[in-house]
Amino acid sequence: MQTQTVQTRKQFRRAVLASSISLICASVLSAQAAELSGRVVDSRQVLLSGVQVSIPALKISKVTGHDGRFAFSNLPEGQYQLQFSYAGVPQQKSDVSLTSNQALGDITLAKVESGIDKLEVQGQLASAGKALSQQRFASGIVSVATTDELGQFPDKNVSESLARLAGLSVEPDQGEGRFIRVRGLAPDYNTVTYNGTQLAAPESGRRAVALDVIPSDLLSSVEVTKTIAPEQAAGSLGGTVDIKSISAFDRSSDFYSFSAEGSYNQQQNETSPKVSGLYSSIFDIAGDKDALGVALSASYADRKFGSDNVETGGNWDIEEQALEEFEQRQYQISRQRMGLALNVDYRPEGDTDYYLRTLYSKFTDDEVRQSLLTEFVEPVQAGADAAGELVRGIKAREETQTISAFVLGMEQQRAEWQWKAEVGASKADEKTPFSLADGQFKQEFDQGLSFTGTDKLQLLAPESAYSAQDYELDEVEVADTFTEEKEKNAKFDLSRELLQSWGSLELKTGVKWSDRSKTADESLWLYEDLEDAGLSKLTLADYPMGNADYGLGRFGPAINPGLLLSELSTLDRDDYLDPVESQINDFRVDEEIKAAYLQGNWQGENWQVIAGSRFEHDQRDAVGSKYDATIEEFSPQLYSGSESHWLPALISRYSLSEQTQVRAAITSSLVRPSFAQLAPAFVLEEDEGDIEASFGNPALEALTSTNLDLGVEYYPDKLGVMSAMLFYKDIKDFIYATDLAGQGEYQDFNHAETFINGDDATLYGLELNYVQQLQGVSEFWDHWLVSANLTLSRSDAQISWFDDGELQTRDIDLPSQSDKTANMAIGYEDNSWSLRLAANYKSDYLVEVSEFDDPAYDLFSDSQLQWDFSAKWKIDPAVQLYFNAVNLTDEPYYNYTGSSAFNAQYEEYGRTFAVGIQLTNW
Questions:
Q1: Residue 337 — φ and ψ, nearest 5°?
Q2: pTM confidence score
Q3: CB neighbours of 378 closer than 8 A, spacing ≥ 6?
Q4: Which of 50, 167, 702, 773 is 20 to 30 A (C-alpha) from 33?
C-alpha cells in the first residue's frame, strides 16, 4: 500500500508539472496586443447569455456569460466585423476599428420582423431562445433550463422541470420528483454541483442529491453536461447537473420580483401556501462605479398532500399465483421547503471579479403513515379462504434535511492570461429525532382472510377486522437517526489564449483538492412485552383517531401516534434500547481526492476541438462495526485504500453551415460507489447450522466508463432546433449485489450477501429533440411554440452468484434505466396570455433484482404518462396571475414483480391545482 501511495504521488506531481510547463512554453508564442469587450442586451436592457460573438476574419468566437459580457484579448489592431448569433434572431453584424484596448459598452440585439425592431427576454418563447442559444454554442453536449424556463411549467421543484429536457427523467417520491436520471442512468451515477462545487447529499446511503430540497426561485439556470471535459471534476457517468446561482450582474439595473401562491391537493382536500422573493442591486463603492453587486433571494412553501397505497413488496409465489402478504397504507404528508441565497460580486476593474455564492435550503418532511398488513399462514390465491394475521401499524416522523454551500473565489484576466482561484464547502444533514418508526397492533384469524384484485388489491375479512378493540398492542419501534456529509474543496485554474492565423488555441490547466466525509448514526428502541412492563392501554381502542381516509377500499380504524408516544413516555427508554440495531448501521467514510488536468481548446473557422486528460487520486478510509451473533460480540471494521484514474477526453463541434453543426466526443468518466455499498457493516448469524452474513464492501472500486457521442443539430432561422444524438457507454467494474456463499472464505456459508465489482455493462441510445416556433404561416400561429423530445436507450449488464459452489450468471438491464423517455409541450403566448400543456412519459424499468436465480421475481416500475397545464395572464408588464394544474389524469405509481399481474406497489396521489400572483419590476 505504501509503494502504491508513493507511485500515486509521483504521478500526481508529474501531472501538475506537465500542465505548468505546457503553459509556460506557450507564453512565448504570442505577444500582447489589444483587447475588445462589451455586453449584449435586449431592447429592455436585459442582459443576454448564450449569444455567440465571433470575428470571422480571425476565426475566433466567444459566448456571452450570464452577465451578457464577452471579451477578446491579444487581438491585432485593425478593422473587424463582429457577428452576433442568437436562437430565433437573424444574425446581426457590427463593424469595429480596433486601435487599442476598447470597450464597446452595451450592444442591443434586435429582432427585425413585421416592422418590430426589438427583442424582449420574457415569456416562454424568449426563455426557450435563451436555453437553446446556450446549448447551441456550448463546447459539449449540454441541456439547459433557465430560470425563465423553470417558471413556464407547473412543476413543484427543479427536478421535475429538468425531467422535461431531452434524455432526462425523474425518480419520484410520494408523487413528487426528487432525483434526476440522465440518459436512463440512476441518480447515484450523476453529480449535482452548485456553481461547480459538489453538493453534499443528506441521505445516509446515497451520493445523489434530491433536487426537490432546493427551491427553483434561488437559481438563474440549471445546466446538465453530458460530455465531461477534463476541466470538470469526475464523479458522474450520465451527466453533471450544475446549479447556477443568481448574480446582481446578471441584470443591467436593480431588479426585484415577488410571488405568492396557494395550491389545493385533491387527494387530501388540503390547501398549501408558497411565497418567494428576489432582489438584486448594483452599487458604487470606493470610487468604483457599479462595482458591487448584491443579490438576495428567499423562498418558503408548505405543501400538504398525501397518498393511498397498497403493496405486496414482491411477496408472491409466482408459480402458484399465490400471495404471502400485502399491506395497505394511507399517508398524510406535510413538506416544508425554505431556501435562502445571498450572492455578492465585487468588480473593481472590468477584468477582475471577486465573488461569494451562498446557499441554504431546509426541507422538512412530516409524515404520518397508517398501515394494515395482512399476513397469510400459507400463500393464498385470490378469493380463497385462509388463516392469518392482521397487523395495524403506525409510523410518524418529522425528517429534516438541510443543504448549505458557499463558494468564495477570484477570477482575473490579464491580456491573454486568465486565472481563477476558488474555495468551496458544502454540508448536508438529515435528522429524524425520536420518531415512531413502527407501532403494531395485531389480531389473529383461523379463517376468513383473503384478497381480491390485481394492481389495486383489497382485503376480504370478517367484520372484526375493522373493530379497534379486537387489536392488541404487540410492539413499538422508536428511532433516532442522524446523517451528516461534509465536502470542502480548493482549486486553481490557469489558462492562456493564443491567437494564430488558423484560429485560436486556449491552453488550460488546473489542480483541485477535495475532502468528503459521510457519517451515519442510528439509535433504535424496541418496546415489547408491554403488559409485563405495567402498561394498561393495550388495545387499539385506547388510541382512537377515527377511520383512516383511504381511497382504495375499506381500511378501518386509524391509530393516534401522539397518544401512543405519550403512553410510552411513562417507561424508561434505556431499558428498551436495541444494542445491535443501534450500532450496526453506524459508520463513517472519508474520501480525499487530488486532481490535476491539462486541456487544449482550439477554435477554427468551422471547428472547435477540446482535447486533454484529467488525473484523479482517491484515498478512502472507512470505519464501522462487525456483529457476530454466534458470540454476541461487536468488533471494529476498518478499511484504508486508494485508487487512481487517468480520464482522457476529445470533444469536437463542426459547423456544416450557419444552421447545422455536428458534435462528436470520446470521453472518460467514473462514479464512486454509493455509501450504502461502501458502509463497513458486517452481520454474522447462525440458525440451526445455517451460517448467514450480510455486509458492505468498502474496498469497491469506482465504476468507470468510456463514452462515445455523435450527433447533428439544425437551428433554423426561426426559433427552434432539430437534433439527433447517438450515445454509447462501455462501463467497467459495474457494481451490483450478489451472494458469495460457496466460494473462498465463504465456502461454508449458506448466504453471504454483499456488493462486488462485476463484469462489464453497456448503455446505448438515441436522443431526438425538436423545438419550433410555428412562425411564418399566419399571425395566429406566430404565437405558438411546440417542443418534443424522445430518448431511446438499451442497456446490457450481467450479474453472477454462487449456488452450491457453482458460478451462475444472467443478463439484466441496468437498474433505473427506461428504454423510452419522452416529453411533449405545446404553448401559446401573446401580449396578455401564456398557456402551456405538457406531457412527460417514461417506460417501465428494472428497480432491483429480488432473487438472483429467478428473473420472475425482479421488481419493475411500470410506465408513467403525466399531463400538466399552466396558464398566465399578464395584467400589465409588472403583474401577472397564473394557474397550474398538475397530474391532470391522476396518474398512479405502479411497481410489479415479474409481470404487471403481480402487484409490488400501487399508489395514487391525486391532482394538484395552484393559483398565484407574480410582481416584477421589468
A1: -125, 125
A2: 0.87
A3: 322, 386, 387
A4: 50
3-class secondary-structure state, position 125:
helix
Quick one: residue 217, left, alpha or beta (phi over 0 = left, psi -120 to 50 = alpha)? alpha
**Which range scores top for mean pLDDT: 289-293, 502-506, 586-590, 852-856?**
586-590
Which residues make beta-bridge pairs with 370? 330, 394
Of residues 769, 615, 662, the one with CA closest to residue 164? 769
The pLDDT tens digits for 423-450 are: 999 999 999 999 999 999 999 999 999 9
Integer Cα distance of 707 and 183 in angstroms = 12
- Torsions phi, psi for 568 (to 5 deg): -70, -25
**Band of the pLDDT at 480, cuts 50, 70, 90?**
very high
SS3 824: strand
Q: Which domains does the chain have, with CATH numbers?
A: 245-920 (2.40.170.20)
Q: In this predicted model, which residue has the larger pLDDT, 216 or 458?
A: 458
667 phi, psi to nearest 5 deg: -130, 165
Report CA-CA distances (Å) from 676 to 373, 579, 589, 760.
28, 21, 10, 21
How much is the pLDDT for 123?
A: 62
Give per-residue pLDDT as tens, 281-315. Answer: 999 988 888 899 999 989 899 999 999 999 999 99
DSSP calls for 263-302? EEETTTTEEEEEEEEEEEEEEEETTEEEEEEEEEEEEEEE
DSSP letter assigned to residue 110: -
CB atoms within 10 A of CB 502: 12
The backbone region for 335, taken as left when phi is positive above 0, alpha when psi lies in -120 to 50, beta otherwise, is beta
Q: Which three cell numbers stand for residue 408?
A: 468564495
Q: Residue 820 carries which side chain, given as an amino acid letter?
A: K
3-class state of residue 318 by DSSP: coil
Task: Tell me 743's DSSP state.
Answer: S
- Cβ atoms of 730 and 706 within 8 Å: the answer is yes
Give the residue-averaged pLDDT of 503-509. Answer: 92
Q: From its phi and psi, is residue 579 left (phi > 0), alpha (psi between -120 and 50) or beta?
A: alpha
Is beta strand 806-812 parallel, antiparallel or unpaired with respect to 322-346?
unpaired
Check: CB of residue 894 under 8 Å from CB of residue 296. no
Hey, is 828 helix, strand or coil? strand
> Regarding beta strands 191-194 and 240-245, do their DSSP bridges make them parallel or antiparallel, or are they unpaired?
parallel
3-state secondary structure of 69: strand
Cα–Cα distance, 630 to 686 (Å, whole number): 6
What is residue 17's predicted lDDT score, i.e. its pLDDT? Answer: 45
